[in-house]
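Running this now, will post back.
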Amino acid sequence: MLTARIALAAVASFVAVLILGPWVIRLLAIWFRERVGSASKTLDELHAGKQNTPTMGGLFIAAAVLVATLLFGRLGNPYVQLGLFAIVAFTILGALDDSIKLFTSRLGLTAKEKFLSQCALGLICTSWLYVIQQQTHYSGKIVWLDGAHQITVGKWIILWGVFVIVGTSNGVNLTDGLDGLAAGCMLTAGAAVTTLVYLSGHAKFAEFLGVPRIAEIGELCVVLGAVLGALLGFLWFNCHPAQVFMGDTGALPLGAILAIAGLAVRQELLLVIVGGVFVVETVSVILQIGSFRLTKRRILRCSPLHNHYVFQGVPETRIVTRFWIVSAILGIAGLALIKLL
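Update: finished.
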C-alpha cells in the first residue's frame, strides 16, 4: 500500500492547503506582512509592489505536511520521524528569522546566528541518520551515483551531512525571491529526489538500477509526497502576483528535507544536479561577494542570479518560467544519470 499512501498523502496535503489557504492568508495579512528591505535600494524599488504581501506561508505548508503524514505515514518508521523533526525544527528556525525581520528593525537573524542554528539542527539530523543507518552496508560512506564506488569516511559523514543540509536549505532560501520561483523549482527537484527514495526502497528497482538499497527508506516517500502536494497547493496562491510568500519559514525546512532525503539514500552528490538551480543561485552569491571583495567589481548587476535578470528588465513571470524549465530538465537529467553512469 506504500504507493497508494504516497499518493493519498500528496492529495491530502494539496487539498488541506487549498482549503486552509484563504483563511490562513487572511490571518497572515493581519500579523505577518512582507517588509521590502534589502541592501539594494534599486531592488527595493523594483519589488515595491510586494510590500505588505502576507508572508510566513511556510506555516501552512508545514501544517499540511504534518497532517497528511500523520494520516498516511507509518509513524514508527525512523525515517518518517526524522523527516517530521526536520520540517518542524527548520520551520521554527525560519519563523524566528522572519519574525525578527517583521517586528524589529533588523533584517532577521544575523548571518552568524542563522548559520550556527542551521548547523546545530543539521548536526542533530545527520547524527540521527547516522544512528539509523549504522548497521547498513553504506554507513559512513560517500557513495558515487551508481553505488559501485564508495569513499569510507566513518563518523566524518556526520559533518558532511551538516554541510549538505545547511547548503541546500540556504540554496532554497536564496532562490525564494520571485513569485513561485522557489516553490516551482522545489517541486521538480523534490519529485526527482522522491523518485530516488522510492527506487532505493524497492529491492528489485534498486538492484536493476544499481543504486544503494536502503531498507525501510520507502516510507520517507510519504513525507516527501505530502511536501509535493503542499507545494502544489501553495503555488495556487504563490503564483504571480503572489497572494502569500513562504518566507524563511517555508524555504529552510523545504531545503532541509530535500537534503535529508538525498543523504538517506546516499545520493547527495546527485543533489548538485537535480537541485542545480539552487546550487547556481548560491554560487552566484558567493562569486558576487568574492569578486567585490577582491576586485571591487560585481560580476552580476545583483545577486542571486534571478535578481540579475530582474535588473535587466526581464518580466518576472518569464524569469520564473525559465527557471522552472531548467529545474525540470535538471531533474530529468539527474534521474537519467543513475542508469548511464
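The mean pLDDT is 91. More later if anyone needs it.
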